[in-house]
Amino acid sequence: xxxxxxxxxxxxxEKGGVGKTVTVINLAAALARADQQVLVVDMDPQANxxxxxxxxxxxxxxxxYDLIINPAEADPFAAIRKSDWKGLDIxxxxxxxxxxxxxxxxxxxxxxxLKQALAELNHHYDxxxxxxxxxxSLLTVNVLSYTNEVIIPCQTHPYAFVALSELFxxxxxxxxxxxxxxxxxGLVATFFDSRTRVSSSVLDKLKRDERTKxxxxxxxxxxxxxxxxxxxxxxxxxxYRTTSYGALDYMGLADEVMGRN
Length: 261
Fold this sequence. Notes:
41% of the residues lie in helices and 17% in strands. The chain has helices at 20-33, 48-52, 64-69, 76-79, 100-104, 113-118, 138-146, 158-162, 164-177, 197-208, 225-232, 237-240, 245-259, and strands spanning 7-11, 38-42, 81-82, 88-91, 127-131, 149-155, 183-192, 216-222. The protein is globular, with a radius of gyration of 17 Å. The chain is built from 13 helices and eight strands.
């Protein structure tokens, strides 16, 4: 049965180590648990979202690399892999994606390659979540051209807070020049540890800063070793240990995301 137009969301931060891929995996799984049909598109050459959903990088023939290099020929439906969990699919990544920018650089309309490749999927899911590289690149621009929403994970650390200015500038440039329909749906604080003054101070800044206070999710992703354990075994935390802080936090985030339509 076909869906209405999905919510297509990029989870993005140009700074690494802020919980970007973890948020993609676990938000997607939490949405699937809420009876949503969800597709994860792994646009990070490191393929951590692919691994995090239990997919072996050597077990498939078609990846996001093939789709973005040959958008007019590659079949996006053939690239979809079913996960072990109902309602949660993924288009996996491949290390070759790291070289895609060189292959795309001289192509006319190169920033719309992903949008062209995935157009046929638009009525088959409720949510499409896209994982991005931890850097500003042509791959990232392709993602922002394709998506209509952005979720920003921000580690509750001073360096991560400072890096937000550059990210906002990037999103603003894409809105102005490529995708005027792109909007920031929300910012989620990650790796929050209430026992440390630093975490509490950064969270307080996010709540007070003019750029972030209006988009900050109420849900905070607390530091939780269970999240790392679940990633190690290739299983979303909401299925790995449903009563853990990690699972409860991501289910809370999913509720907020569904409410911000």
